[in-house]
Write a structure and sequence with these properties.
With 264 residues, the chain is α/β, with parallel strands linked by helices. It is 37% helix and 20% strand. Helix 1 runs parallel beside helix 9, helix 2 crosses helix 3 and helix 4 runs antiparallel to helix 6.
């Protein structure tokens, strides 16, 4: 089995330092990294073995980072603004990219990280390909209902400790940053309509047919609205975590998508 070298980084951004990790295969065929964007409760550690599997199977470097306030990155104390998705693309990601000396790259974003990946790709021509997993380009009632259920579940005794394992004393901020933002009536009209057409790179849109946080209308919206070539893949027997529920299918699909683009 080919070796995977890992490196860890602390990168300076507005408001603190961000933790990042890189997986580099010994047999890399490309130096163009795949950059992973995590979901609303996620962090580098919660990608589990997916980054290493991706690096090993695609023979290219993979990078993941904890957004400020999450995982091993520094804490945030104020709630995020309703423009937090756009701010990740325009305020934070350029510093991550510079700090890691990344030029050309591929984005893979899960859930809200998919929305962030779309927004980054719309603003940066250095993004050469885009992959979204269960991405959310607008707010559905299904989204709000599922988030409300999670909020109520976490209010039960002992449940917040599940998040503390990954986020430490930032866990309550992480939970509130997700639930209070998405459940706010003021956020209900948020969508990616204004920027998605500026995505010029090829896009692979993957969505679970049983995604509890959003219907396949999310994936159809993305595939139809991006400004470049798109490919839509619905995994019928899959929920909101395609990379955990169907990792082999996801990696195969990404490998084939990038092979057609001569990235791998």
């Amino acid at each position: 089995m080919d070796s995977i070298q890992t490196e860890e980084f602390k990168l300076s951004v507005a408001g603190g330092h961000v933790y990042a990790k890189k997986w580099s295969p010994g047999n890399a065929r490309s130096d163009v990294p795949i950059v992973l964007m995590h979901d609303s409760l996620g962090c580098v550690q919660l990608w589990r073995d997916f980054p290493e599997s991706l690096a090993r199977n695609l023979c290219c470097p993979v990078v993941a980072y904890d957004r400020l306030g999450f995982g091993k990155s520094d804490a945030r104390h104020l709630p995020p603004s309703f423009q937090f998705i756009e701010e990740e693309a325009t305020t934070y990601f350029p510093l991550i990219k510079s700090g890691l000396s990344i030029s050309s790259y591929i984005l893979l974003g899960h859930s809200v990280g998919g929305g962030m990946a779309i927004t980054i790709a719309a603003n940066d021509a250095d993004c050469k390909a885009l992959v979204t997993l269960a991405a959310q380009p607008f707010v559905e009632e299904r989204t709000r209902a599922a988030i409300l259920k999670v909020k109520n579940d976490f209010a039960l005794p002992g449940q917040l400790e599940r998040l503390e394992r990954w986020h430490g004393d930032k866990a309550k901020w992480v939970l509130d940053a997700w639930t209070e933002t998405w459940l706010s009536p003021a956020f209900g009209g948020w969508n990616l309509s204004d920027c998605i057409g500026n995505v010029r790179c090829p896009a692979l849109v993957i969505h679970g047919g049983k995604d509890e946080y959003g219907s396949r209308a999310f994936a159809q919206f993305i595939a139809a609205r991006v400004g470049g070539v798109s490919k839509l893949l619905i995994l019928e027997e899959c929920g909101h975590m395609p990379h955990k529920e169907k990792p082999h299918l996801v990696i195969e699909a990404v490998a084939q998508f990038l092979k057609e683009l001569t990235f791998a």
